[in-house]
Amino acid sequence: MNDEFIPILPEAFVRRMQALLGPEAESFFDALHRPRDRGLRVNTFRITPEAFATRSPFSLQTLPWIQEGFAYRRPDRPGLHPWHDAGVYYLQDPSAMAAAILLDPQPGELVLDLAAAPGGKTTHLAARMDNRGLVVANEPHPQRVRVLGQNIERLGIRNTLVIQEKPENLVRRWPGQFDRVLVDAPCSGESMFRKDPVVRSAWREEAVARNARVQRKILAAAAELVRPGGRLLYATCTFSPEENEQVVAWFLETRPDFRLVPAPLPGSSPGRPEWGGRDDLVHCLRFWPHKSPSDGHFYALMERAGPAGSFRPRPKSGRSSRHVRDEFRPIRLPGPVAEIFREYLPGVPLPEWWEKRGDLWIALPDDFRLLGDLSGIRSVSKGVAWGSVQGRHFTPAHALAMTLRAAEVPNRLSWPAGAQEIDDWLRGKPLPAPSSAEPGWVWIGVDEFPLGWGKISEGQVKNHYPKGLRRPVE
Ligand code: SAM
Known about the structure:
This protein is α+β, with helices and mostly antiparallel strands. The chain has three domains: 11-304, Rossmann fold (3-Layer(aba) Sandwich), CATH 3.40.50.150; 335-401, no CATH class; 406-469, Archaeosine Trna-guanine Transglycosylase, Chain: A, domain 4. It is built from 14 helices and 23 strands. A hairpin with a 2-residue loop joins β17 (384-390) and β18. The chain is globular and about 70 Å long.
């Protein structure tokens, strides 16, 4: 099936863009009627971009603003390749990859992604921090927050805390705490018109103004969460000045303690001061589909006045919160449980702090204490589930498998991507066990990238790949 449709653009959108772009509008519309450049970002926890480019079966184009990102086109379909299931990459519009480059989080920092699902930017921020420090990924929408958790798990990221809160609630709890905050705001999604007919048919001129009101509210909360001297990145995937330059102009007028930081990137164009009525809006960035291989994005990188060091006010305790929903009791691993984990994974250092939910042991990110007490925050996940322990009986969690490198697991089986075994595995079928295999849990890989756990018994590898992730059986 040819899914490179020719979009029929909403008439009012065409009129608006013609008025805004003048003679440039022609090349803009031409680009929207050509096949898209799609993007793929390599998960650097799994493989280096250089090694990926050599081993990848896809025709990749490099991108001038990001080393670990590539553009590709149909007929390549990396989303159907088993490396996708193994978290070797994340499919992401090339211009969306600029967010983590601009915000530039450092290992050890405390970073907040305020509107995080499905997790493209969260997983990129975490990868750039090398699992050191903490990325708090917030998503208020209950269905979307689940997908966010699945993507974090698939990419094997360890230093995230996934929460489901309104930004205003976080202000009460963590004022001035974060080194860097990303607001990838809900928007009218005009840059998605080519790929998503639903966004295109749902677009209304009135919705632009409605979105701008929501964006201002989220940004106002975000400003309170940035520490003095910290940075705030505002992003949208739409073209309308009302949701971009005009929101930033309003923000800078209401928050004179913030200034725009010039951060030009190759492939981007400057913001348009005349669309927001301030000269400094030239420091915003726009990615246009007719100027770079991308769908399009808007960015404004801002800095809060204050000392440049890592000063951060003391976190507030959650005990007095009226919104207590969740008690948080980090504990150390009891000796017998540590012994079981060491037996299975002798080469993997055991994290220091854990949470126990029933029989399930969850390893907390090394730097979770950057936020103090987490009681009262509606958290969805806080690190990596290792598995359930009942007496001497251990059932490893899928999330644990996805954080491990092949060399760290003594008991493992791996097949190449084209093997029938991999296709069968992803459809939930059992596999024949090699005659030399010991009974018990075995880590399954594709080209040595993780695909979960199997259990060997009676000459078979029983399939424990989570049901919700399996491909349909033909
Ligand atoms: N950053 C995501 C990524 O890179 O995968 C995409 C984020 S998407 C553009 C915007 C998200 O904001 C949606 O998931 C939406 O549910 C969420 N959202 C909607 N209203 C919100 C609000 N008031 N505060 C925070 N997030 C909100």
